[in-house]
Amino acid sequence: MARDHLGRFEHLLLLAVLRLGEEDAYGMTIRRELARHTGREIAVGAIYTALARLETRGLVQSKLGEPTAERGGKAKRFYRVLPAGKKAVAKAQSILLGLARDVERS
Amino acid sequence: MTNDETVHPPRAARWLLRRALDGAARSAIVGDLDEEYTRFVVPRDGVRRARRWYWRQALMSIAACARGAAERQLDPDRPSLINPRIIMQDRHGLGTDVRAAVRFCTRTPLTSAAVILTLAIGVAANTAVFSVLNATFLKKLPIAHADRLVAIGSKPGGSFSYPEYLASRDVAGLSALAAGGRTTALLGEQQSRRRVVIDLVTGNYFDALGVGSGSGGRGRFFTNEDDQSGRPPVAVVSHEFWYRQFGADPAIVGRTITLNRSIFTVIGIAPRGFSGPRIGFGPDLWVPLTSGLLIDDNPAMLGEGSTWLGLLGILDRQSTPEVARAALAARWRALGTRDDAVIERIPRGHTWNTRTSVQSRLRLVSFFVVLILVIGCLNVSTLLGAAVHERQKELAIRASLGAGRLRLLRQLLSEHFLLAAAGGLIGGVLGVWLARQLASMMASPVSPGDLDVSADSTVVLFTIGISIATALLVGLVPAVRWSRVPIVSALQGGSVGLTRLLRSAGLWWLIPGQVALGTVLLASAGVLVKTVYQLKLEIDASSPGRVWFSDLQSDMPMSPASFADFEQRLRVHLRTMPGAEQVGIATARPLSSSSAGPVRVEGQAKPPASRPRIPDGLDAPPPPPPPPKRGPRPKDFWIVNNTYISPGYFGAMALPILQGRDFTNADTSNGRRVAIVNETFAKHAFGTGTALGRRVSWGGGETFDIEIVGVVADMRMVHLRQAALDTIFFPLTQTPPAFMFSPTATGATKPIPMTIVLRAARGQRVVRDQLARHVLAFDAALFVDRIWTFEEEAGRALSQERLLAWAGSTLGAVALALLVIGLYGTLAAAVVRGRRELGIRLALGASPGAVASMVVVRSVTVVLAGLALGLPLSYVFIKSFAHLLYGVQPVEPLVLAATVAIVMATAIAAAYFPARHAARVDPVVALRAD
Question: Are B25 and A48 a contacting pair at CB < 8 A?
Answer without folding.
Answer: yes
